């Protein structure tokens, strides 16, 4: 045992007799020792939880994913908001925040998150696409077309984006453009049932009932092949 250990074990009363230590120290000494122990413990926890930034990101992403799987959408949003505050230049984090906000019905917050993505990374196709979808849900079809056109410029071979553009043009009664985008969508994905359903309605609006019927027959064929 070293000299310090021996000193700690000595009787304080005896020390005071030989070294004139104040009486108040008798009372304070156990708390001083406790304080040192607590500080050591806190320092230990700080070392344990001094995680790297990427580890912190992974931890919160895991929490957000788990909350999403449990259907706890508000918790998922909360975790993604924490991540967004810690990683303000990460477009992927803001994109996932947007998805979480959409699931929670917070369309304004979702759109804001996607706009941040587009600002950080202008070629982030999915951000433009999701903003277009929000505008469709809000029946802001002209704005939807604007965002979806940005997305299609980046990813022209996307059947889904072509379909959504066709849907939006149909809603503003620009039927020729709607049909052109629908046709591109089924060329890219011949089994895209929803496109044929929408195209049938568009042809019906154009009074082209023959082509509307052809689209509906194609729907039945595809549905029968699946069942």
Mind explaining what this structure looks like?
- This protein has 227 residues and is mainly alpha-helical.
- The chain has two domains: 52-122, Serine Threonine Protein Phosphatase 5, Tetratricopeptide repeat (Alpha Horseshoe); 123-227, Serine Threonine Protein Phosphatase 5, Tetratricopeptide repeat (Alpha Horseshoe).
- 81% of the residues lie in helices and 0% in strands.
- It contains 13 helices and no strands.
- The chain has helices at 3-9, 12-19, 24-48, 53-69, 73-86, 91-103, 107-120, 125-137, 141-154, 159-171, 175-188, 193-205, 209-226.
- The longest helix has 25 residues, at 24-48.
- The chain is elongated.
- It starts with a helix and ends with a helix.
- Mean pLDDT is 85; it is low at 1-19.
Compact description:
This protein is an all-alpha fold. The protein has 13 helices and no strands.
Distance between the terminal alpha carbons, to the nearest Å?
Answer: 82 Å
Task: Quote the average pLDDT.
Answer: 85
Residue share in helix = over 70%
Summed up, the domain count is: 2
- Uncertain parts: 1-19
Q: What Rg do the Cα atoms give?
A: 32 Å
Beta fraction: under 5%
Q: Please, what is the oligomeric state?
A: single chain
The CATH topology of the largest domain corresponds to Serine Threonine Protein Phosphatase 5, Tetratricopeptide repeat
Structural class: mainly alpha
Global outline: elongated
What is the CATH architecture term of the largest domain?
A: Alpha Horseshoe
The largest pleated sheet is described as: none
Instruction: Give the number of helices.
Output: 13
Give the class-level CATH name of the largest domain. Mainly Alpha
CATH superfamily of the largest domain: Tetratricopeptide repeat domain
Strand segment count: 0
Question: What is the chain-wise order of helices and strands?
Answer: HHHHHHHHHHHHH
